[in-house]
Amino acid sequence: MDDKVKLKKEDIEYKVDNIVATVTLEIDKKIDLVHVARKFIDSEYNPERFPGIVLRVPEPKATFLIFSTGKMVVTGSKTENKLKKAVTKVVKDLKSIDIKIEDYTIKIENFVASGGLNKRIDLNLATIMMEYSLYEPEIFPGLIYYMRDPKASFLIFSNGNFVCTGVKHEHQIAEAIFKLKDVIQENEIYYKSEEKSSSEEIVFI
To answer: In this structure, is residue 95 part of a structural domain?
Structure first.
């Protein structure tokens, strides 16, 4: 899903920016990270600073953190298909340098998506009307909203742009966005076309 996905409800658009996953390798002994780092030219290993190898895979693009226990963390993929291809490639490469792997499992931990609501949002009103929200404009210009069902976290900005995190299944992204849109619509937490946000009303003399 590299391109934006257009949802039917008022043409809301979003795109998946990142998928975070963990991979568990079935191994009979710990992985020799020094050996792996020497064989993989795209890897970085500095055990004094970090206990794992950082491996960057150019195609399909992904970054792996590989630990001696057989645990891996994968970031940077934008589709589940590309994530699986990247994991398959790394497992194959590890086997090619005599790392014995019986099997492996992939668990998606988080989708990160971004998009726009096509409305300017009154964040001061939102923090009052939306339960489980936090807005401290002197610290950060966006509102943080914790959705309970489906479980997701949003960063919402006054121009209507948002970032959605914490979703573990791709279909829940659209579900969470629709629910967010409904909350904003029902509570009228947006500026009408003739209204101006407080930031637009500031006049410098």
So the answer is: yes
